[in-house]
Design goal:
The complex is a heterodimer of chains A (about 180) and B (about 425). With about 180 residues, chain A is mainly alpha-helical. Chain A has helices at about 15-40, 45-60, 70-90, 105-110, 110-125, 125-135, 140-150, 155-175. In chain A, about 70% of the residues lie in helices and about 0% in strands. The longest helix of chain A has 24 residues, at about 15-40. Chain B contains four helices and 26 strands. The chains are: A mainly alpha (about 180), B mainly beta (about 425).
Chain lengths: ~180, ~425
């Protein structure tokens, strides 16, 4: 079971690259879109990033040293894709200013409490937000988070710790 | 409930709203099985020593116009009227700009009158992807990318508004770079003798529609290289240490050339650049190009710690050409058009202290969300910046103007163009 999706791994009998990548997508895409959505704030961009990541995986399938680590590769690609989107947005507006980040429907369903937490989360610097989402929202271990973010375990610890502290401050100020 | 629990509950609630996602759309073609092979270089012929020598001689004797378009005519004999405000702008602020106004067009314009001096088309099957300017207000260098293999090649653009042929485009003997190299910075030295290029090799790329899509695989080190314009010879190269190849930008990249705000100081001795790969704090750095060493980080010095000292700059700053100050634009935030604390600012950070020392210009009258950035910066008292004010519509109102202490004087620069007035897409 993958902690991102709670979905069983794809069957091993699928042989063609497109079949294997599609099977991975079917098993993990929803979880990865959720991850990207938490990073970016809107589902459309999240789906675009995940599509790009799997497209990149497909294009590199033949040259992957270890196809068994495809999910690790694609998870990192999703994070990279989110960073690219956020960087491009930051040339325009800070991420928390993005006007269409949350749909009206989603905002209506979520309560005030959740909306405040999500808004605060989106105001964190990108690295802290990634660390908090991967560690505390998706339940990845420090090692898995470090691997996905391509940073050291120590940096994961400090980034998530600082992120939580900043969240606590922001939420206290709002209450 | 702890903060961790609150975050976990809220994010889980939001994530649970994601249920239906679109199916994977894979291309019909087979996946790539081998790493990217360097493309055939279009300019290989004149990279040969004999041909290169011929180009040097040709450059030294005369600049040959190549396929200058029959686009808009030269500036009229009677120039359009200049607004009283613009007339007060000091002459040290550049008058001419070159802007990418489409994949196949560079427009040279007069920022005082708004007149279009010339429109230049690319030679052959290439696309314009970057532009940088010297300090003489007449010389520019353009980066082009070949259709298909994406190879980067370089062109000199000389402007003479009074001439019958006011814009001359000449190929430069600088070696091409492969299409899989992401160009993150481009800066022509003030005396137009050297071109600095900041780039990062990627493993592979593909062209999808109008976009160059870089692979998300391992990247090479960040590389900053200077070239002699006359000979094309690489003069100096600095790179990040082995393993320091964290990406500035990764997949689906179609970034404009000057993502890192690469700039020269007026004395031609220092290059300023923004270094903000994701996994390290962001810094504006200054590199003494006359000093020893080849390590991009160890041999340069941070002049502003953006992550720690100036997070409101949103990871974006530029070194002034006098080398004394870093300027950054700070966006205003006014959701719903409210006026609680709106401000759009151009903040000044002296290199000597790295601390906020004041503001070149602050617009506190805006009751709107507005973005700010800097295109050209001479000193703490003279720069060209951009104000992009978001009204009720989707398209912001963008104004390019001269920044002097406490003042923003709009220039006659069209802003509803192809890429917008971004560093690398427009140069003064």
């Amino acid at each position: 079971m993958d902690p991102l999706t709670d979905t069983p791994a794809p069957p091993v009998q699928v042989r063609s690259p497109s079949g294997q990548v599609t099977a991975l997508y079917q098993a993990h895409a929803t979880g990865l879109v959720r991850l990207a959505m938490l990073m970016l704030g809107d589902q459309q961009s999240a789906e675009d990033v995940v599509q790009d990541a799997f497209l990149g995986l497909y294009r590199r399938w033949g040259s992957l040293a270890d196809q068994g680590k495809a999910l690790t590769y694609v998870r990192s690609s999703v994070l990279n894709g989110c960073r690219t989107v956020l960087r491009k947005r930051s040339r325009r507006l800070p991420s928390y200013l993005e006007p269409d980040a949350e749909s009206a429907e989603a905002l209506a369903i979520l309560g005030e409490e959740h909306r405040e937490v999500l808004a605060a989360l989106r105001r964190l610097p990108a690295r802290q937000r990634e660390a908090v989402v991967l560690r505390h929202c998706l339940g990845l271990s420090e090692d898995e988070t470090a691997q996905a973010m391509k940073i050291s375990r120590g940096t994961v610890k400090s980034a998530s710790s600082r992120g939580l502290a900043a969240l606590a401050r922001m939420l206290k100020e709002q209450s | 409930m702890s903060v961790e629990d609150r975050v976990r509950t809220a994010t889980r609630a939001r994530a649970d709203l994601v249920t239906d996602i679109r199916p994977l759309e894979l291309p019909a073609t087979r996946p790539l099985r081998a790493p990217f092979a360097p493309p055939t270089r279009r300019w290989a012929g004149w990279l040969a020593p004999v041909a290169a020598a011929a180009v040097v001689i040709a450059l030294a004797v005369t600049l040959v116009s190549t396929r200058h378009s029959a686009g808009p005519p030269p500036a009229p004999a009677t120039a359009p009227a200049v607004s009283p405000a613009i007339a007060t702008i000091e002459k040290t602020v550049p008058e001419y700009y070159a802007e990418l106004t489409g994949p196949n067009a560079v427009t040279i314009g007069d920022d005082r009158t708004g007149a279009v001096v010339a429109t230049v088309r690319p030679p052959g099957n290439v696309t314009f992807v970057g532009v940088t300017a010297a300090a003489d207000d007449r010389t520019f260098v353009l980066d082009t990318q070949a259709d298909g293999d994406g190879t980067h090649a370089w062109y000199l653009l000389r402007v003479n508004p009074a001439a019958s042929n006011p814009a001359q485009l000449t190929p430069l003997p600088i070696p091409t770079l492969p299409g899989a190299d992401q160009i993150d910075g481009l800066a022509l030295s003030p005396d137009a003798s050297e071109l600095a290029v900041f780039f990062q090799p990627y493993g592979s790329f593909s062209i999808q529609g109008a976009n160059k899509v870089l692979s998300g695989g391992p990247h090479g080190p960040f590389t900053l290289r200077t070239y002699a314009l006359a000979t094309g010879r690489a003069l100096r190269t600095w790179t990040t240490p082995a393993g320091g190849g964290e990406a500035l930008s990764t997949s689906s990249s179609a970034t404009i050339d000057n993502e890192v705000n690469l700039t020269w100081t007026a004395d031609g001795r220092t290059l300023g650049f923004l270094f903000s790969p994701f996994t390290t704090p962001s810094y504006e750095r200054a590199l003494n190009v006359t000093g020893p060493g080849a390590d991009l980080i160890a041999d340069s010095r941070p002049v502003l710690a953006l992550t720690d000292t100036a997070p409101e700059c949103d990871g974006w700053a530029v070194l002034t050409s006098d080398g004394k100050t870093t300027i950054c634009g700070i966006n205003s935030y006014a959701p719903g058009g409210g006026c609680t604390a709106p401000k759009a600012e151009f903040a000044l950070f002296p290199v000597s202290t790295g601390k906020l020392a004041g503001f070149l210009y602050r617009d506190q009258s805006l009751c709107a969300t507005a973005e700010t950035w800097v295109i050209w910066a001479r000193s703490a008292a003279s720069a060209i910046g951009v104000l992009a004010v978001h009204g009720k519509g989707n398209t912001p109102t963008i104004t390019v103007g001269v920044l002097t202490p406490g003042k923003f004087t709009p220039l006659n620069v069209p802003t509803a163009s192809y890429l917008g007035p971004e560093p690398g897409a427009i140069a003064f």
